[in-house]
C-alpha cells in the first residue's frame, strides 16, 4: 500500500441501549434528564473494526482519529473511544442542538480534510434517530466510494484496496474499492471490547481537540421542524384459544382469513 491508513471513526453519544426511551412532558423529544448515556452501539462496532485492522498489521495504520458532534458531555464518549484504542480525537461542540444527518456529514467532511483521512468507518445508524443517512451523505460530499452495512472488512495491503461483505435482502454481497473509502458497519461485523482501567487512565492524556461548527465553516441550521413526539399506541392484550377450530373462527370473524 502506497500510503498508510488514516482512519476516521465518528462516534455518537446516545441514550444507553438498555434503557427504554420516554417522551418528555413537552412532547418535543425523548427525556434526557437523569438518563444514562453511552457510545452508540454501531459506532462502537466501527471503532472496534478500526482497532482490529491496526492489530492485524501495525505497520498499515498511521492513526485512528475519533470524532463526535454533540454537547460538551460528548467528551466522555470520546474518552471511551480513546481508552479502547483511538489515538486522538476531536469534539465538534454544537451544544444541545440535535443535528440532522446532512449537517453531521458536512462537519465530518471538514474533519476528513483536516485530518487527511483516507478511510472513514462509521456506524450505519444511531439508535436515537435511526436515520441511516450520514455515511451515504458523507461519501457523496467527498465523492468517495462507499460500502454500507458491512459484516466483514478485509484490507489488502499490497493493492491498497478494501473488500467488504455487506448484508442485503436475501443474502450477502461482496464489493471491492480502492481508498479513499467510506464504510458503514452492521451489528454482525464484530464484538466490541471493553476499555480496561489502565487504558481509561491513559486516555486522559491523549489529545482531545474541541472546535465549533463555525470554526469549520459549516452551517448546522435545521431544515426540519419537529412538531410533536408521542408514544406509540398501547397494544391490546392477546387472547388464548382452546383449539385450532376456535382460532380459525376468530380469524374469520376478524376478517383475517
Task: Write a short abstract of this structure.
This protein has 257 residues and is an alpha/beta fold. 28% of the residues lie in helices and 27% in strands.
Overview of the structural elements:
The chain has a single domain, classed as HUPs (Rossmann fold, 3-Layer(aba) Sandwich). It has a 9-stranded mixed beta sheet, sandwiched between helices. Strands 2-3 form a two-stranded antiparallel sheet. The mean pLDDT is 92. α2 crosses α5 and α3 packs across α4 (134-142). α2 (75-84) links the parallel β4 (61-70) and β5 (88-93). The chain has 257 residues and is an alpha/beta fold. The protein has helices at 41-56, 75-84, 101-115, 134-142, 197-203, 213-216, 244-253, and strands spanning 5-10, 13-15, 37-39, 61-70, 88-93, 119-123, 146-156, 161-168, 171-178, 181-185, 208-211.
Number of helices: 7
What does the radius of gyration come to?
Answer: 21 Å
> Helix coverage percent of residues?
25-40%
Biggest β-sheet strands, sense, barrel = 9 strands, mixed
Number of domains: 1
CATH class descriptor name: Alpha Beta
Per the CATH scheme, the topology name is Rossmann fold
Spatial strand arrangement across the major sheet: 9-8-7-10-6-1-4-5-11
How widely separated are the two ends? 61 Å
What oligomerization state is this entry in? single chain
CATH superfamily grouping: HUPs
How large a portion of the residues is in β-strands, by DSSP E? 25-35%
User: Rough shape?
Assistant: globular
Structural class: alpha/beta
Keywords: Electron transport, Mitochondrion, Transport
Subunit structure: Heterodimer of an alpha and a beta subunit.
Family: Belongs to the ETF beta-subunit/FixA family.
Organism: Sugiyamaella lignohabitans
